[in-house]
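Quick one from the shared queue. A colleague (R.T.) flagged Peptidase M48 as missing a structural entry in our internal table.

Convert sequence to structure tokens.
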Amino acid sequence: MSDDTPQLPDFIQRFLAIQPGGMSHAGTLMACMIGVLAACAWMLGGLSMMISAGIAVAMMLALTPMISPDILMKILRASPLPAKDYLAIHEMNHLLSDRAGLDHRPNLFILPGKGVNAITTGTDDHTTIAISSDALHNLSPRQMRAILAHEVAHAWHGDTRILLITDVLYRATWTIALFGLAIFIFGDFNPPAWMIVVFGAVPTISFLLQRAVIRDREFAADHGASDLLNGPEDMIDALLHIDQINRTRLRIIPYRSTQPPSLLDTHPSVTARIKALRALKPGTWQKFFENRKMPEQ
């Protein structure tokens, strides 16, 4: 995917995590999502609507269960990664999980299909990492360890919870905006034109902010992998190799013939991710082993 987005100033590209911006700012992006939701609710019904929206979001977060990893693995037709056939990968998973201080080691699954891919889902003792068949058979041990480190970093950072929160915020914003437009169109209220435009735009704004959070967490997971591996070199090598494999393996799939715009993509470009990794200063990852209490052997 091309990194050329001349219509966006550099600081906006960094804010929206299209390009690396140094420190993770997922909290700021999520605060913006909350602000968009609050503004939308306030325009629709004032302070009382804002309070109602806040209560609704809190209830959704409390009552909306995260999809079970077992169900997701069945949907993806993934199967458990047999330890007897992939002992080294299970040992890598054990070591990396211990280094990250995870209370529970993630379960490992294998994904069918073409292309190098890996996903992390679930939380705590239900955390699951699924790795594609192409990754298992086309990556070197060091490259595989880097991919595992990236996925373990997602679990380490609690990214599945963060993405659940952003999903609820986006859905709540979409619901309020749709409700507002329905009132404007079918009700007796005659709003100014700018308000109709705003209510039509806020779902897109919230969606773009949600995508930016996801990209920000990808940059953070790369940084976390660098922490776990005591340097970014293996992660950089893995990203370059994966990009080559996927360009070859996925070029026959129609929807891959044109890449989505950077604003809509869930991952930063490989070029941007490597740029961020190369920008890491040694002190940002060497202290990991000084501060992290290693498990007793």
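The two ends are 44 Å apart (CA to CA).
The chain has one domain: 13-290.
Added to the table.
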